[in-house]
Amino acid sequence: MEQANGEDCQTTRGSLFESRPDIEAIDKLLREQESIEERKREENSKKCILDQEATLLSELLHQALKRVQELDSEIGTTMSQIFERQKYNTAVETLFDEEADKGKKMSETLRSMEIHEAEQVRLIDAITDHLDSRGISIT
């Protein structure tokens, strides 16, 4: 029996040594699996970070779009105010031009009246001189 047991022990011992490459292969597969799982965790972590960054960028873009719309509205209001101011300025310029034309006409009329008045004064002086020369007094 000893011999039988000895053979059994040797057979068992031999099969253990023969199975060592299987253990190493299993160990290698387990390490690869752990490595794959670690990469998956890293990728999931990166994906989570990218999702957070995408969410933040989306919020920033939304805020930027809202601000652009506000600025567009302000520009529209400002342009409308500028247009109204230009219409007002044009109206005022037109009034000034009309008043200037009236002033020129009045000035011409007054000048004409002054000339006419001067002619009347000369005519009256001539008539008075003529009457004086004849000895007729108007006063």
Please explain how this structure is put together.
- The chain has 139 residues and is mainly alpha-helical.
- Helix content is 95%, strand content 0%.
- The termini are far apart.
What class would the helix/strand composition place it in? mainly alpha
Shape: rod-shaped
Proportion of helical residues: over 70%
Determine the mean pLDDT.
85
Report the β-strand fraction as a percent range: under 5%
Kindly state the number of beta strands: 0
Q: Note poorly predicted spans.
A: none
If helices are DSSP runs of H or I spanning 4 or more residues, what is the number of helices? 1
Rg measurement, Å: 58 Å
Q: What is the topology?
A:
Layout: H1 2-133
For this entry, give a set of tags:
139 residues; mainly alpha
Task: Briefly summarize what is shown.
With 139 residues, the chain is mainly alpha-helical.
